[in-house]
Each structure stands twice: as C-alpha cells, then as structure tokens.
Write a structure and sequence with these properties.
- This protein is of the alpha+beta class and 376 residues long.
- It is elongated and about 85 Å long.
- Helices cover 48% and strands 14% of the residues.
- The strands form two sheets. Strands 4-5-1-2-7-3-6 form a seven-stranded mixed beta sheet, sandwiched between helices.
Length: 376
Amino acid sequence: HNILRQGLNTPITCSLHLKNWGQITTPYKSIYGIVDATEIATLWANHGTNLLSKNIRHFLGNTEANNAMIETLTNTPELFKYFNNGVSILCNTYKKTLYGGTNTELGIFECEGIEIVNGAQTVGTIGEYYRKTPLDGHSIAEVLVKIISLEGAPEDFSKKQTIANNTQNKVEKKDFASLSPVQQKLKDELRLNGINYHLKRGVDVPIVLDDYNYTFEEAAVALASYQQDVTLSVLAKREVGKLWESLSAAPYTDLFNETLSAVCLEHILFIYRRIQTVLKTLQKPDNEARTNRILVLGNIFITHLVFQRVTQADLENKSLNAPQCFENNIKPLVEYYANMTINTVNSNYTNSNIPQLFRNYTKCRDIKQKITSNTD
C-alpha cells in the first residue's frame, strides 16, 4: 500500500532558467528571479495539477481574475511580470549548474521535488493559455518566481510556509475605488470644504461619522437612493456590493462620473444622514413589530422617496447652507413617506415577508407607484 501511495506522488524534478536572479542563504536557502512563461507552461503540460499538491486550491479555470491574466498575456505580455504577484515554489533541494558562473543575468537551476504553494491560478492560466496559443511572432511573457529549499528547514516549515503564502486580508472590490480619478477628485474637492471622504479601509485613522466624515460605501448607497428609478435603491438593499462590482461599468458609472460635483455629493450625503436619523427616531418600542421592520428594512426605499422631493438646483447650489435649507424640511418628508410606505405595504402586501419585500424589484416599483400616485 505504501509503495502504491508513493508511486502516486512521484517527486517532480525540473530545470528553471532564472534571469536577474538573486539568493537568500540564511536561515534557509532560497532563490528568486524572472522565468519565461513558456517554462511554466511546459511544467503545466508535463505535470498538470500534480504541481499543486501542496496548494490550498487547484486551478479554478475561467474566473474574473484568471480572465484578466489572459487579457494581459494576449495584449500586453511584456507587462505580465509587473501586474502578476508571481509564483512561490518549495523544493527538497536545488542546485545551480555551471552555466553562467557567478553572473546573475541568467542562471540554470536544477530543482528536485518541487511543489507550487502559491500562484496556482497563475500557473494554470499560463499553462492553458500557451497550450492553445501559437508562439510564432508572439511576445513571451515573464513571471517572477521564488524557489525555497526545504533542505535544513524544520519538518513543519513546508506547512507553515504554505499557510503564510496563502493568508492575507481580503481585498474587496470597493478597495479599488481609491485608485479612481473621479473618486480622488471628489475627495480633494470635499477636503477643501472641510469634509473628509474616506476611500480606504484601515485602523490608522478612526472614522467618526459626523457631518465632516463620510465613507465611500455610504456615498454609493446615498447616490443609489437619489436616482429617479427605484431599481438601484433595491439593489443597494439586496446586494450593496453590486453597486461597485465594476468600476468601469454601470451601475457604478451611473453613480460616480464626471458630472457628479463635490457640492452635490456633499448635500446628498447630508440629506441621507438626516433621513436615517429621523427613521431611527420613528422606531419605537410601542410600535407594532411589523411597523418597526418596515422602518428598518425599508430605510433605503423610504430614503429614495424623500430624495425625489429634493431639487437638483438645491443640490448644486454652492452657496447653500445645508443645515438651514434641509434640516427642517427633511423630518416631515421622512415622516410622511414612512407612514405612506407602512400603510401601502400593510394594505397591499399583508402576507409578504418584509426583508424580502424590499429586495424585490417588481414589488418596490408597485409600492412606489401607489404612493406617488396618491401624493400627486
């Protein structure tokens, strides 16, 4: 049984040509450098998923990230080594051949017992890409590779290294908003007005959510509520991350674009905060439970209705004093539309589940139509 099991895990040996290579000698031996993507593709062709026996995942195929790699390999292969995080390889031992002597421009290294512990998607994507793509006249991409020898390392070093290489704080789609020129322009212009617009997550500067501090996520939900169509308000309640899933396409570009001024966003955020404050005061212990659920779970829907009564001219007015203009007007509007929403839901959707009701596009459109027709 042990003989058969060992036969299924035959150590993989290979030669890798490392350009501009360097090395670390203590406490454990390691080399790093640039490798032609075709060498990675050859490894994949010869060994496939056996290369990934120590990786936490196998090759996932056509994911969004992998498709982005394919786009780079196709259109700008010379940039691949800059855009990609590279590949980490463990091996039992490695040895440099005599080729090149001590010159670090190019070295050939014989590696025994290799296992890829980080970069499974890079290896699989490169392997599948070059398997299907002819190389004639095609520029070859390069990959940053790190190879760590287990020779002389503790017995559990392999496991610890694999966990460490694959453990990191999750990068969320909204984190990329900080790279957007539109967002940076808004941030800079709001700062001139004394408003801190927080684009990045972190603990270095605690965010006190007052009239001078707002977040990107809050701005996205407020702008979704402000749209004339209730669809984005429902989306914000249904799956808020969809608002910024792609920074180059709708619905994000419907919310954040060159036509959005900093003063308009500032006023929208101010109104949005005031609406949420009033809605909280309407949630009372002696209310019926269903009433409080509508106020809590229908908050974005009610916010949308209130925003339809705010004029674009007021929002764009640079000399407008927001507290003086909106403070006294917002409360009666929120109270009115909260009551209208409660009554309409109770009259027309008696048996509906409240959490699902405000995530349903068709029902929210119907409720809005009934409320606005009565208002008109």
